[in-house]
Amino acid sequence: MAKCFSFTATRDWCFRYTFSNAGLRSTTTDLGDGTVMHVWAPKAHIKSKPTLVLIHGIGANAMWQWSDFISPLMSRFNVYVPDLLFFGDSYTTRPERSEQFQAQCVMRVMEAHGVTVMNVVGISYGGFVSYSMAAQFKERVEKLVLCCAGVCLEEKDMDEGMFKVKNVDEAVSILLPQNPEKMRELLKISFYKPAKRVPTCFLNDFINEMCIEYFQERKELIQALHKDRKLSDLPKITQPTLIIWGEHDQIFPLELAHRLKRHLGDNAELAIIKNAGHAINVEKPKELHKHFKSFLIDSLPPTGNQSNGCKTD
Q: Are 272 and 247 in contact (CB under 8 A)?
């Protein structure tokens, strides 16, 4: 029996067209240790532009989360958009599940593309990976933007009632929904004004296309974030950092934004987007880009005098 029309697969194809039309190409790099990384990379790396890496969160692949930002950012940056391990076409046979390992894999694939210095933007889970990149590779990350990324959470926060869920297994059941009911819960806690009456067939289609593959591995990624996590173990990064948060975030409550600002001190600035939940990239893309522009672009020298971040022989 022929497969029925898939709205999700069609939208995925549209995102691919958008990325390609903006000047990006789909690339796959074998890192040689059982790890393969997929990255959307510039069709032509322009030496006069700095490099910007956009790192997605838990959910669909990178295209779904960054599509609204590619075209405006491409005019000032060489934009690279990796799929993290177990998303899109990236995977590993290795057992590591930490954000530190994800960060190392992103850095290795960027080096394979000839890029050594970069600015990094990470949203949600991607913010954990971005923070780890900045901590591990201090000389290679120039500026960092963290969007709704609860990197300073502690294991005890869940026991003390900070989150909507009571334990990690409950969090996994919502963040990696396997049925329409859990998908509706995810929409409810992700958006300040969630869509209502989304047809069940659309939800099932999205789950089948985006949430079933690598379920166990993604579950382990979430478990690794939470296990034995303490603020005292979080390194203090030194790069200029912009923290952006939705005022009504129910996945990583706003208190975590203030905690992170206190942790980083004067090295960081905090921007709170009103009338927005966790999915600020979907709910408030124009406001989010305005903050990107102010922090990343307005401070750039005139085009033609910028560091390209590429290795030279």
A: yes
Confidence of residue 308 (pLDDT cuts 50, 70, 90): low
Q: Quote the CA–CA distance of 91 and 255 in Å, as a whole number.
A: 33
Q: Say if residue 30 is exposed, middle or buried (CB neighbours under 10 Å; 0-12, 13-18, 19+).
A: exposed
**Rg for the chain, CA atoms, rounded:** 19
Q: Are 144 and 53 in contact (CB under 8 A)?
A: no
- Rounded CA-CA distance 12/243 in Å is 29
The partner residues of 40 in beta bridges, in order of sequence, read 26, 81
What's the gap between Cα 294 and its chain centre?
A: 20
Q: At what angle are helices 180-190 and 168-175 packed, to 10 degrees?
A: 100
- Whether this prediction's pTM lies above 0.85 is answered by yes
pLDDT at 2: 45
State pLDDT tens for residues 11-20: 999 999 999 9
Q: Dihedral sign, CA of 186, 187, 193, 196?
A: negative
Token pair recorded at residue 29? 């790099």
- Number of Cβ within a 10 Å radius of residue 74: 18
Residue 59: per-residue pLDDT: 85
Question: Between vectors from CA 200 to CA 66 and to CA 175, what angle results, nearest 5°?
Answer: 45
42 backbone dihedrals φ, ψ, rounded to 5°: -60, 140
CA atoms of 229 and 151, how far apart (whole Å): 9
DSSP state of 36: E
Looking at residue 310, its pLDDT comes to 61
Contact 276, 284 (CB under 8 A): yes
Q: Name the maximum alpha-carbon separation found in the chain.
A: 61
- pLDDT tens for 225-269 read 999 999 999 999 999 999 999 999 999 999 999 999 999 999 999
